[in-house]
Amino acid sequence: MKRAVPVVLALMFGVSAPSHAHRPGTGDREQDVGEPKISFAFYGELEDEDDLYVLHLDFDEGFALPFEILVPRRAKWEDHRPVFAIVGPGLPAPTQAELDLLPREVPAGAGVFFEPNDDAERELIFETFTRRVFWTSGPIAVALGEGEHEVWVFSPDGSTGDFVLGFGVEEDFSGVGCGDLTSDWATYAY
Amino acid sequence: MFLRLATLLLAASATASAAGCDEAEQADTCERYVACVRAIDEREGRFTNLDRFDPGGACWGRDEQAHVCEQSCEAGLAWLAERIPDPPVECSP
């Protein structure tokens, strides 16, 4: 009987655990995103004005999905405006203004989608997985061509701080164990 | 008695989790976004998987996700209208 209490609590937690969040990811400055068709949230920190994250996504067909970049709502990050650029096939040629801001050369034949994250008033959202409030650039659907893409996250104005890059809609946590979800919890929840 | 209480609590939790899971309908902005991308695809001779934005797609399972998709389609449509050379009439905002 006494042992039933923690079992019941564990079952309750399992039933009400968040089941509608992106797959979380952290890690190296440059990495491959396996299964880019499954929604993904990458947590990172821009530490200096030249910092850059590069995520590699490889699509086996043209694919349209929403992207957005978030900043945790903290006073010290009120002026933190990370941006992202998607570089790859199926996108239009970058403007000169975009080229001037990009941290790397755009490969020949590749186009660019650039999110400047420069709305005067950023929308606030409550993210149910981390249960935190974020400023968001606002989600935008981007149609990507078949093939390899890179997503560059950087800060043209040199601001530093945490960010979350989220993309996708479909969910699949079948390959993610509880250990994977919680191992970097200190990064997600702070 | 404890087992009955546990069963009640589990049922309540499951109901609470299920509440708010009514399927949303495809947003107008996404209907237009899909039409725009498909028109571009037809002109360019390519294919884009838009399943999630179509009726019955992954966008429309929960209100929260539906709202994100609706916003993303509106923004995506505006971007295409501005950046695609000679956009099809389906891409008019």
Provide structural commentary.
- The complex is a heterodimer of chains A (190) and B (93).
- Chain A is α+β, with helices and mostly antiparallel strands.
- In chain A, 15% of the residues lie in helices and 38% in strands.
- Chain A contains 4 helices and 12 strands; from the N terminus they run H-E-E-E-E-E-E-H-E-E-E-E-E-E-H-H.
- In chain A, the strands form 2 sheets. In chain A, strands 1, 3, 5, 8, 9, 10 and 12 form a 7-stranded mixed beta sheet that branches. In chain A, strands 2-4-11-6-7 form a 5-stranded mixed beta sheet, with no helix packed on it.
- The longest helix of chain A is centred in the first third of the chain and has 13 residues, at 4-16.
- Chain B is elongated.
- By secondary structure, chain B is mainly alpha-helical.
- Chain B has helices spanning 2-18, 28-44, 63-83; one strand spanning 48-49.
- The interface between A and B is large, with 33 and 39 residues.
- Strand 5 (62-72) of chain A pairs parallel with strand 1 of chain B.
